[in-house]
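Progress against Task 2.4 (sequence-to-structure conversion) is shown through the following example record, which the project officer requested during the mid-term review.
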Amino acid sequence: MKKQKHPKQKSGRGKPKNGRVVTDEAQAVAAHGDRASSAGRSSPSTDKGTALVGDIRPDGSAASARFRAGVRTPAFRWAFLAFILGVSIVAASLVIPHEFAFFELGYLFTLSIYDLVLAMLGLSIAIGLAERRSEVVSILLAFIASIAPMLLFFDPIFHAILQSPLGHELFLIAPVAVMLSGLVLWLPASLRRFAAPVSASIVGFSLSLFIGLDDFGIGIKEFAFSAVLGAVWILAVPGLMLRPFRGAWLTIPARIIGSWLMVIAVIVTVSLYVPFSPDAPPLAPPLTDPTEPDGGTNLDAPALPPLDPAVEEGLMEAPESFDDAPPDGGIPAPDLGGNPLLGGGRSGEP
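Structure tokens generated for the chain above:
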């Protein structure tokens, strides 16, 4: 019988081939892994950058965590307690009907000087930006050191100021204080540490002039002490509340506020040079009555002002009574008196 030929199995020969194929694929995968790992080792900045981007989550959890940490600090809690206490005292003084004591009138007087309040708030932001506690102490000491001698020896110092060239332009001291406090917020930290105490001394000097020229002024110690205490509260408390959160993020907001302060200072300065109303015409001579002795002339009686030109020309009717308010609701110009801080007492000299 013819032997049948069985097909030869080629599995033996195929195994090495398949083995080689598997080995080649494994080597390719391993090489790809080595290249990936070497690329990862050669670009640590990429991994670091990815980690940094991952740390900055869109929900602002890092900022909120920093805010919570700042709120928990004892410095913020004490400053916030002082802020709440001061606001509560002022609110109680204004809301509860009662007769004001001199102590209350002192800090309410300080709050009424709006331009100096803005200047002190600007310096308070500078306190929040201060890098060292010594800078905070220097600002507060410069502020108090400029007030104390003025209130203790106000009369001789103020008399000397009036005799100097500064006496004619003394009304510009408050706008200059606001301007400098805004400028301080624009300076870099290296210059701000020296400029802030100078600005604080000028603000304190301006406040001492307002206190000394007030009706109560330095004659009532409770009034003067309370006015200075309210000023220190405005200057220190907001900045101490801001210090736990200081950082680079505060630079741009501080410069925006500084720009506002400088613009406000320019507006206040211009308003001081603009007259309230044109010069009033001279008064008419006093009326006479021939039936009275001496011709009925009474020099003590007030003279009547001239009529409105529109009334004289027949363009409008004369009012029946001069006791009522003007029909247009006009308000007569205020009497500045001799207060140099309001521009009064100037004789037109430069």
